[in-house]
Structure formats: C-alpha cells, structure tokens
Amino acid sequence: MMIIILLIGASLVVSSGFLLAFIWAVKTGQYDDRYTPSVRMLLDDTENTIDSK
Fold first, then answer.
1. Which of 30, 32, 48, 50 meets the CB 3.0–4.6 Å disulfide criterion with 25?
2. What is the distance between the alpha carbons of residues 11 and 3, in angstroms, rounded to a whole number?
3. For position 37, what pLDDT does the model report?
4. Nearest to 21 by CA among 13, 52, 6, 2
5. Are 25 and 31 spatial neighbours (Cβ–Cβ below 8 Å)?
6. Cβ-proximal residues to 1 (8 Å cutoff; 6+ apart), any chain
7. What is the C-alpha to C-alpha distance for residues 18 and 12, in angstroms, rounded to an integer?
8. Residue 48, pLDDT score
9. pTM: predicted TM-score of the whole model, two decimal places
10. So what's the pLDDT on residue 35?
C-alpha cells in the first residue's frame, strides 16, 4: 500500500515538472509563429533536381 502512495507522489512531481515546462515555453514565445501557417501551402517541400548526364 505504501508503494501506491510513493508512485502517486512521484507522478505528481513529474507531471508538475511538465506543466511548468509548458507554461515556461508559452511565456517565452516558443509557440509564436504567425507567419508560417499562412504561407505553408505556398512553400515547396520537395526540390526538383535535373540530372545532367
């Protein structure tokens, strides 16, 4: 029974760490990209190369 309490405590610590990392990432602007979604369909992902043999 003691192991369940230990595992719940450990999972709360780990999940709190991930929550803090997410909040930090949002506050520092890691998800601020307003340019790329508007032009994504215009960008060519593949490069066409011509072999000159």
1. 30
2. 12
3. 74
4. 13
5. yes
6. none
7. 10
8. 63
9. 0.61
10. 81
Supply the DSSP symbol for 48. Answer: P
What is the number of domains present in the chain?
Answer: 1
- The amino acid that residue 32 corresponds to is D
Residue-range definition of the domain harbouring residue 18: 1-52
Give the model confidence (pLDDT) of 1-53 as tens digits. 999 999 999 999 999 999 999 999 999 998 888 788 778 777 776 666 666 66
Give the tokens for residue 16: 């709190």
- 25 CB-near residues (< 8 Å, 6+ apart): 31
| Token pair 């998800």 in the structure block, residue | 31
- List alpha helices for 1-53, DSSP H: 2-27, 36-39
- Tokens 């949002």 belong to 26
